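Example 3.2
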Amino acid sequence: MGIKVVIVDDHEVVRTGIVSLFEDTEVKVVGQAANGSEALQVVKSKKPDLVLLDIRMPDGDGLTALEELRQAAPNCRVVILSTYDNPTYIARANAMGASDYLLKGSSRDQLLNAIRAVAAGDAPSAFGEMRRVAGAMATRQKNDAEPTLTQRETQVLRHLALGLSNKEIGRSLSISIETVKEHVQHLLRKIDATDRTQAAVWAVKKKLV
């Protein structure tokens, strides 16, 4: 039957290019939208299997649209397709129920394979950014004590989750880069995160950002 997809992006040339990528495949574009409000209308009328959603659009970010889409059509899966490799975007997309997060530099095969995986209900694809957060905090048992971060570690975590570099964090908090690195290492260990993106997921889920 194919995979019915709606493309949401404010640039027509991007939408047209994506449509051309799906020619002669089982992925069928059943609708397009230029913003979040249009996306809701199209999804309600076309009832797609999956939405390809941009992050930044004129009338509000795609993450707001993601939340609204998940409420309006809970059975429709959403894949973020963005230019931005931003840990906060990835973390928020994960927390809000996106199935995967791909960068616009992905190849045709990577995009198609990700869509197929999501449509089949599989884990995030090996090419999507969501793989970086899959299983985040899974190693922490339910009865484990909640990790306690110092005030400075919490400050560093908030800045990290917003996508700031060590240099930017140091400048903001008036501490050295070496000190920032030490705080990052300590907080990653405390929350069982393997990298900054997993730390951002943890921060978002704990409503620290």
